[in-house]
Design a protein that fits this description.
This protein has 306 residues and is an alpha+beta fold. The chain has helices at 22-27, 66-78, 94-104, 132-155, 161-184, 191-218, 225-247, 250-274, 282-305; strands at 9-10, 16-17, 36-41, 44-49, 56-61, 83-88, 110-116, 119-124. The chain has 3 domains: 9-49; 56-124, 2-Layer Sandwich (Translation Initiation Factor IF3), CATH 3.30.110.20; 132-305, Methane Monooxygenase Hydroxylase, Chain G, domain 1, CATH 1.20.58. The two termini are 28 Å apart.
């Protein structure tokens, strides 16, 4: 990456101007009155061509390692490629084809776009420009819905299998948005991009633990009813931390950290007494503890961005 320095100039109307590198302009066939996008990212500005050229990647199959090829497909999606072509010198076996097509259903916008006996093509068909914060909000909305449904189910001791199955299935939808957010971040660099990855990863891990508790509950694992009110406070903290993120409010994020600190003290007392109670699942309590830790990570990330 080449670094250049440019002086800021001011026009008579008080408009600030920075000239573009001539080689960059020529390389991208730009001319007078062409429009480019200027994207603000913290203390950085990103220049982007208004009509971006489609990027294509090829994945060559050397052996039928389904897991490796599946990870490669996800990686190319996250890296921002618009077309991904999987090729083989030999025949691509049906099992691998089915697996890759199934994987593509977890990647928002990516669809199978033709195949031959030794080639399988996927193309990004979603062209709308969803904002990063919009994707994070949608991911969080689904995640906190699962948490609310789970806590309500535990509180009234209903253990509704349809609700629990819905929570488990929703985790797949949340994973889709996680991959989409990583893709959106592929064109962003610097400290803020790292923080956004941490936030998205925290929501994804929170959702994994919500799913885990739902699975344990389906398997007749239980927690003490009197403890549920303590863990229900996680809903309010999870709501507050996304509010802090949307408003970039370090004060709200710091209040969440204070609440988490109190939660840890109360939760430790519960765990210490849990060994005296029989028939309750420590794994459920451990997952709730981890949810609190990831909410804390999100609050710290907001403070780092503020």
């Amino acid at each position: 990456m080449k670094m250049e320095y440019r002086k800021i100039q001011v026009t008579g109307e008080g408009t600030y101007i920075v000239s573009l590198p001539k080689k960059w302009v020529k390389r991208n066939n730009l001319c007078k009155k062409d429009v480019i996008s200027v994207i603000e990212q913290g203390d950085e500005l990103l220049l982007r061509l208004r009509e971006e050229k489609e990027r294509e990647a090829e994945i060559k199959i050397k052996e039928d390692d389904i897991e490796f090829i599946s990870r490669s497909l996800i990686t190319k999606y996250i890296q921002g490629y618009d077309t991904i072509v999987i090729t083989s010198k030999n025949y691509i076996n049906p099992e691998l084809r089915r697996k890759l097509i199934r994987i593509s259903t977890y990647l928002i916008g990516l669809e199978p776009f033709g195949e031959t006996k030794n080639e399988l093509t996927f193309k990004m068909l979603m062209k709308e420009r969803r904002q990063l914060m919009e994707s994070v909000e949608r991911m969080h909305e689904m995640s906190i819905l699962s948490l609310k449904e789970l806590m309500n189910d535990l509180e009234i001791e209903m253990y509704n299998e349809d609700i629990l199955n819905g929570i488990i299935q929703r985790d797949n939808e949340i994973d889709k948005f996680y991959f989409l957010i990583l893709r959106q971040l592929s064109s962003i660099s610097g400290f803020e991009a790292t923080v956004w990855v941490q936030i998205a990863k925290s929501i994804e891990r929170i959702s994994d633990h919500i799913e885990k508790i739902a699975v344990l509950t389906k398997d007749c694992k239980r927690m003490r009813r009197k403890d549920i009110l303590v863990y229900k406070e996680l809903i309010h903290m999870y709501s507050d931390v996304i509010l802090a993120l949307k408003s970039r409010n370090a004060s709200i994020a710091n209040d969440v950290l204070k609440k988490i600190k109190k939660f840890r003290l109360t939760e430790k007392k519960i765990i210490d007494k849990l060994s005296e109670s029989k028939g309750h699942c420590i794994l459920i309590y451990e997952s709730f503890r981890r949810i609190g830790e990831y909410i804390s990570d999100m609050a710290e990330s907001v403070i780092n961005m503020s």
